[in-house]
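Title: [Solved] Translocation and assembly module subunit TamA 3D structure

Original question kept below for reference.
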Amino acid sequence: MAAETTGHFVISGVKGKVLANVQSRLQEIAENKPLESQTDEELKAQVAQALSPYGYFNSQASITRGRNNIQIKITPGPRLLIAQVSISIVGEGNDNYLIKRALNKLTLKPGKPFISQDYEQAKQTLMNAAENQGYLHASFDKAEVLVDSGHNSASIQLVFNTGPQFFFGQVQFSPSYISPELLRRYIPFAEGQSYSTEQILAFNNALSSSGYFSNVIVKPVLNEEGQMIPVNVHLQPAPRTNYSIGLGFGTDTGVRGRLGYHVVPVNSAGHKFNAIALGSMNENRLQAQYIIPGQNPLTDQYDIFGSLANLNYSAGYSNSAQVSLAQRHTLNHYQRVLSLNGLYERYSYDETPKFEKLILYPKASLSWMNKKDQLFSPTGYNVTVNALGASKLALSEVNFAQASVDAKAAVTLEKMRTRLYLHTIQGVTLIDDINQLPLSLSMLLGGADNLKAYTYNSIGPGKIMSYGGIEIQKETLDNWYVTAFFDTGDVYKPSLKDWQNDLGIGLMWVSPIGPIKVGVAQAIDSGFNRKDKKPRLVINMGPDL
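Solution (posted by the thread starter after getting help):
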């Protein structure tokens, strides 16, 4: 077994978690007393203590002191194995299904090595299961490990006493502008339900994230007599009116600005209002949104949305007004938005006459996401599926149907310090004449998010859209990456004329506000030959999943 050098000592004979624990222990004691000044017996004792949590109770170590380091050769010896496990549950919860399920999942089994961490984790698992079922006074009447050093075996005996079960009592809110009826819809438990500290924490988080309060304290009253636990909730209101301002820059938009006006709540029913103005060289919008909490305000809401927009793309130009009614359902890794939209738009595509359309169309948007961090996730995915359509039989001037999928995924190869980022967009529009579809509903490509060597939304319109891209991100310094990317795709109607490709290199910095990417993209043909098109500087800020 190869030796492992750390600091002023070299360790051989063990590996993995055992080696890491020995290293950690020696580094810890070296902070108080240099290893060179400790005797061989002191060092051997520390090594023995580091090995014992992993079941090595008869280890030996030899110490060789060199000029520049101390060599420690470890012979771990036979490992302590579990010979017998006896775990019994007594008390009111001795027949509780969830506690018994936790018991059945414990990893303490005869024949397995005795590892102290597993033993302590098993006890904590039972404690957690009991506490989450309202057994707040649970304890171990007996917790013994009997070691037979002659046979290198251990017998475990646990007697777990759940004690009495406690239940949620009444919930009392401090005076608040928000109606009690809405506040009670945030309660994740019912009166008489078994008490759970996890539910108390979830209740506190739900109220804190509602936007109505600057401070929330959910306090169970544990000193009451009996087994019912009342819950008192103190609420401190947040300022009702807020303003927001933002500035940014990207290759697609140039300098962009954002102004926001927010009222939370509008009334005691908890309604919210947002007005936002967005400005850039190719997109300008004025938006208003009125939000009504659903029956479960944590997951459901209704939106009334209106906007005025001006779009100025290479593919076309438009002015539009839109009104929408939407129902939004949001879970941890899933979102569904169903909407009915009314759109009036005056637009023209490149080298086409101006059009004027009034369209009433329903839309469904489904999203699945999994990411560890909202700003930058080393591994994860985000998939969005959209479907919409309109008919002249339903107050629309255009017949069309459209479906699209936008999928992004990232995976990090930790040993290589490399992140692979994949992105694909696929879509189809069923319509007689693609020019009859307003610019704001058209499928377009080009820009920092897809075909990077091409101007933002310059490719299209068309009835079929297809894009795929890969980016390799190699971390060279902490939070600094060298990137290389390749993109391919096109929008066509419906015959394919010239598939678009690009490749490039760049840098990415994962900043406290999210990743910032700077790169250079070059358009190429199918033979990887450079097209007669200048390289394009690409600057992009914000999450990529």
